[in-house]
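Issue 218. Parser rejects a valid record. Input:
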Amino acid sequence: MTRLGRLSVCYVDPGHDFRPGSSHTRQVLTLARALLPSVDVSVTFRRVGSDPEEVGCPVSALEPGPGSAERVVASRRSLGRFLERRAADFGMILDAGWPMPGKLTAWCGQRGIPAIPVLDGLPGTSWLGPLDPGAPWLGFGASGRYLRRPPVVVASSTGLRDAIVRRWRVDPARIAVIGPAIDRSLFAPRDQVEARRRLRIDPAHRVVVVGDGLGPGPDLAPLIEAVPRAGDPALRLHVLGEGERLPALKRLAGTGGSIQFHGAVSDDLQAQYLSAADLCVLLDGSSGSSFTLLECVSSARPVAVAIGGARIPRLQPLATGFTVEHDLLSWIRFLQRDCPSRNTLRMMGLAASSTPVEHAQRTAAAYLAVIDRALTAEAPPAALV
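Output the parser choked on:
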């Protein structure tokens, strides 16, 4: 539970794999590293397909191997094995990233292990859709009971907090709002010319960078098709990340040279591409994306968000970014007519950099406060003498 008096914390993420280059993996590890000066931290993902070298903290998996691409969360059996074999080694469990919020916390409570539910989103529900046994909303029925029991619940935004209160009638006083951990020393305003020199990108090009649309969720195809049809010989689209749609999108892009695919890149290269960009594009902003809106604005880059995307936090249209209908004609119209000059985009990026984004150390301090709050509530009352 502790090492030399230090609390041992495990961030359990049953809904996500360890994926180098993804924004979710990066932000979880950024939080873990920011907590390390105060507590011992390890992270347990659903699966770990590649060797987590030099990530700064111990990383493990709930399930071995690449697993099933069809299943979106770890099985209850694998979580049960974690509880029976490993959970008691930790003084606090952060229960994150799966469609039954609070369930793992409830299981830990039955074993006397302190735990805190951490919610960064609510999957959409559709009572008229097909009855899919893997659908995330099937776990919602009991989640209210699970979330009303812990002394504290973490939500990633005020909007999510309000949704939890409405949907599950959780006392808002027991919900702490803590945003994602952003490494602002990595994602910071940098010289565009120097970034392009390092990446061998022509300084005269109008560069758009996108990091999602390659897997589940909105398809990148409309933007891929729009770029060569925009009629701008200086326009270049750089695509970061991996996904099952990547081979088909490469075939769609052809060999014209206006679209380049870079695959999953390191965090340092991720920051370099954002610095080299004139404009960043987010289609969905989910955990599978290579970067997030907050990382873009922290890098002083404006963002174009596809309307209908899952999350558009703190975007100010025409001031720090744009919203675009996600279809071929809308992207052509935006690239030809509505997207301003490179100089205007640079000024918008400077305005975006004033968006409040907490440093990872402040985020870690907020987590330490809720951990202390939960442990205090779990502690038995002092005996009267």
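Fixed in the parser; the record now loads. Confidence is low (pLDDT under 50) at residues 67-71, 126-139.
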